[in-house]
Amino acid sequence: MFYRPETGSGLPRDPFAAIVSPRPIAWISTRGANGITNLSPYSFFNAVAYTPPQVMVASIGSKPDRARGKDSASNILETGVFCINIAGLENREVLNASSAGYPAGQSEIETLGLAVAECETIDCPRLAQAPAALECRLTRSVTLEGEGNLMLLGRVEGIHLRDDCLSEEGRFDVLRYKPLTRLGYQDFAVIDRLFQMKRPKL
Fold first, then answer.
1. What's an example of a GO molecular-function annotation for this chain (predicted)?
2. What does pLDDT average to in each consecutive run of 10 residues of the chain (202 residues)?
3. CA distance 106 to 145
4. CA angle (123 as vertex; 117, 125 as ends), nearest 5
5. DSSP code of 17?
6. Does domain 16-190 match CATH 2.30.110.10?
7. I need a surface site. Which of 97, 185, 193, 201 has the fewest CB within 10 A?
């Protein structure tokens, strides 16, 4: 079949997010200018450069109690910093719980009783037990087409790795925590198998 997004697919649900999958999840922790912390998962997320390391997160939609975007995006625009916590299979229930539409003045971190630690390079909390966390400083915000669509670019200024996720050979071993990924619809997947292929030389 073929369809144009502006006219719709005719299917019961839009398949776009299922096509572009799996997507890593940025479990973003922030602290607003008012001192209130926020935690929310974002699946329009990826790494975009090595040197310096940089990431992209996109926020879609809005909240009635925010002037622009959602809580995490608003906090990032206010303070210029954010932390991306990486989630594993064991985090699936609490990650999903943190995606609920809590009021702007309510901290998901406190509500869900999550242990946090302070970041080293930015004024922001991180999840203390996350397999990895990226301390990020906002470098650019880009308004995208469509109501409430916003892309945030950040430079990674500090990286935390949980000790038990490092192998004896010094590799960050994703199978030790099984990364949680987002698909389409209400579907998630977990990475629990690896294989290697060497890039061919011409």
1. FMN binding
2. 95 95 97 95 97 97 69 94 98 96 92 97 98 98 94 98 97 97 97 95 92
3. 30
4. 30
5. H
6. yes
7. 201
Q: What is the pLDDT of residue 169?
A: 95
In whole angstroms, give the CA distance from residue 154 to residue 80: 9
Q: From CA 33, how far away is CA 10, in angstroms rounded?
A: 44
Task: Name the one residue in this structure whose structure tokens are 């991180």.
Answer: 126
Which residue's structure tokens are 């809590």? Answer: 102
Say if CB 73 and CB 44 are below 8 A apart.
no
Structure-token pair, residue 184: 């389409």
34: left (phi over 0), alpha (psi -120 to 50) or beta: alpha
What is the DSSP secondary structure assignment for residue 61, as one 8-state letter? S
- Cβ neighbours, 10 Å, residue 18: 13
Within its chain, how far is the Cα of 101 from the centroid? 16
Compute the chain's Rg from CA coordinates. 18
186, exposed or middle or buried, with CB in 10 Å at 0-12, 13-18, 19+? Answer: exposed
* DSSP track, 86-107: E-BGGGHHHHHHTTS---TTS-
Q: Residue 148, Cβ neighbours under 10 Å: how many?
A: 16
Tokens at residue 11, please?
């299917």
